[in-house]
Design a protein that fits this description.
The chain has about 500 residues and is mostly helical. The chain has a single domain, classed as Sodium/glucose cotransporter (Up-down Bundle), CATH 1.20.1730. It contains 19 helices and no strands. Helix 6 packs across helix 7, helix 6 packs across helix 15 and helix 6 runs antiparallel to helix 16. The longest helix has about 50 residues. The chain starts with 6 loop residues before the first helix and ends in a 9-residue tail after the last helix.
Length: about 500
């Protein structure tokens, strides 16, 4: 199919692809057992882990979704970063200490040790379902961009990305994930920098246009704050997803859950030899978060200014269809010159690979350690264990591709990813907090019931429509003078429900 790519662009992409594969193969030469395959023998340097953590948390959703959100709105997204900062600090000094003390391979082993097998199973199930859906959305996000750039069907783009990530993850395990993530982190950060520089240099008056037009349309507004009760921007408005408290708590709780209880994110933190090194890696990502988020928001604001000065019919169509995620890929394809275009596309691919590769490895780790080894075959040779783990990687790659195809038609990839996590992360965070902060509260059997019931509670309070239950919900909220509860509160409600109800029951096993 015809694309706008020049020979130089293809050369850049070829160099990127070859480099990734070489790193993956080189990292996988010494995979002797599952401890090597899933935890790199716990010998990874903290600075490499730091880059990998941030690369995975950014993903293709950040690369195209954050600029798309800034194009459609303003810099309100950055207020999530304030909560995110505190969430990372809590993980470093609360959860990581417990994980290293327990010497776990998957974090759900901690639930098994603290409560029993039912809690262990519930944590595993919640992780696998959440990670499959969330990573499927991430894969769809990158595929949308590639379909625009290469002028190919989204389904074909999904297959290409999945196969590429599968190739090196299958061979190299978590070491391949971390080392490729470090390279890819540098690449897509450079790509974002190149994008904002190119946009501003293309404007008639450069940075002056960027600032003036952006300010005229309030693109740089971060906080929507009012201290008048009943107004939309009231700082504690439960009905407004952009309210200050909603953004802060959502950012804090989501980060606490995603980076602290999701095997996909925690796994690389456990590859450091000592907990202090892991904490250092995570805390540095907290420091880096604000400038990096600001950079990607600036790309979106820059695109808005560019197309405000140079109107484009196709971009106008994307805006009308509420598909602002397509605008940055369109800019890459139609405005950038040879070479730069290749670097930006490689940056997009890097953003996708850095989240997909780790998801495949983490899902395989949980499937093997938490399910296969416990219920199917406990004693397996090191060689067979690695082989079985690789079969799981292949299987999950196929499942993620199917899920991505399903989600590829959504309007806003960024917020869809957050909404999915909101329904399950609360239950996961609540039970982990119960395990860490209490000694004798939380019952193995009741935990699993409470975790699943939290999904129903979250849906009841935050879903836009729950049919015949709408009247009951409205009546309950009126008691507290609340009209409705916006979706960012979902993870907070789930956490409080799981921890609060779980604490009623006493632990039945000795701890």
């Amino acid at each position: 199919m015809k694309t706008n790519l020049a020979l130089l662009d293809w050369v850049v992409l070829a160099i990127y692809a070859v480099t990734v594969i070489i790193i993956g193969v080189a990292a996988g030469k010494k995979e002797k057992n599952t401890d090597d395959y899933f935890l790199a023998g716990r010998k990874m340097p903290w600075w490499a882990v730091m880059c990998s953590i941030y690369a995975t948390s950014l993903s293709a959703l950040t690369f195209i979704g954050v600029p798309g959100a800034a194009y459609a709105g303003d810099f309100n997204y950055i207020q999530l970063g304030i909560g995110d900062f505190f969430g990372r600090i809590l993980i470093a000094f609360v959860l990581l200490t417990a994980y290293y003390k327990g010497k776990v391979t998957t974090v759900y082993e901690l639930l098994g040790e603290r409560f029993g097998p039912h809690s262990h199973n519930a944590g595993t199930i919640f992780f696998i379902l959440t990670r499959l859906l969330a990573s499927g959305v991430r894969l769809a996000g990158c595929a949308i961009a590639l379909s625009v750039v290469f002028n190919i069907p989204i389904n074909l783009a999904i297959a290409m990305i999945a196969l590429t990530a599968l190739a090196y993850t299958l061979v190299g395990g978590i070491k391949a994930v971390i080392w490729t993530d470090m390279m890819q982190f540098i690449l897509f950060m450079s790509a974002a920098g190149i994008a904002i520089f190119t946009i501003t240099m293309a404007l008639p008056n450069g940075w002056s246009d960027f600032i003036d037009v952006g300010q005229a349309h309030q693109k740089f507004k971060i906080f929507h704050i009012s201290f008048i009760s009943g107004t939309k921007d009231y700082w504690f408005n439960f009905s407004n997803p952009d309210s200050l408290m909603a953004g802060f708590l959502f950012g804090c709780f989501t980060t606490f859950a995603a980076l602290g209880t999701d095997q996909d994110m925690v796994q690389r933190m456990l590859t450091c030899e000592k907990v202090k090194e892991s904490q250092k890696a995570l805390l540095w990502t907290a420091v880096m978060n604000f400038p990096i988020t600001l950079l990607f928001l600036s790309v979106g604001a820059g695109l808005f200014v560019y197309y405000n000065i140079f109107p484009n019919a196709e971009v106008a169509g994307f805006v009308a269809a509420k598909k602002t995620d397509f605008i940055f890929p369109h800019f890459i394809k139609t405005v950038l010159g040879p070479g730069l275009r290749g670097i930006l596309i490689a940056g997009l691919l890097a953003a996708a690979m850095s989240s997909l590769d780790s998801a495949l490895n983490a899902l395989a780790a949980s499937a093997y350690i938490d399910i296969f080894k416990r219920y199917i075959k406990k004693n397996t040779s090191d060689q067979d264990a690695v082989k079985i783990s690789r079969y799981f990687v292949i299987g999950f790659a196929v499942v993620l591709a199917v899920i991505a195809i399903f989600f590829s038609k959504t309007e806003s990839i960024l917020w869809l990813g957050f909404r999915i996590a909101g329904y399950t992360y609360g239950a996961m965070l609540g039970v982990f907090l119960l395990a860490v902060f209490t000694k004798k509260r939380g019952n193995d059997l009741s935990n699993i019931i409470i975790m699943f019931s939290s999904i129903a509670v979250v849906i009841f309070f935050t879903a836009e429509s729950i049919g015949p239950f709408n009247i009951l919900r409205t009546s309950l909220l009126q008691i507290f003078k609340i009209k409705s509860i916006a979706w960012p509160w979902a993870i907070i409600i789930g956490t409080l429900w799981t921890f609060g109800v779980g604490a009623i029951f006493r632990t039945s096993k000795k701890v």
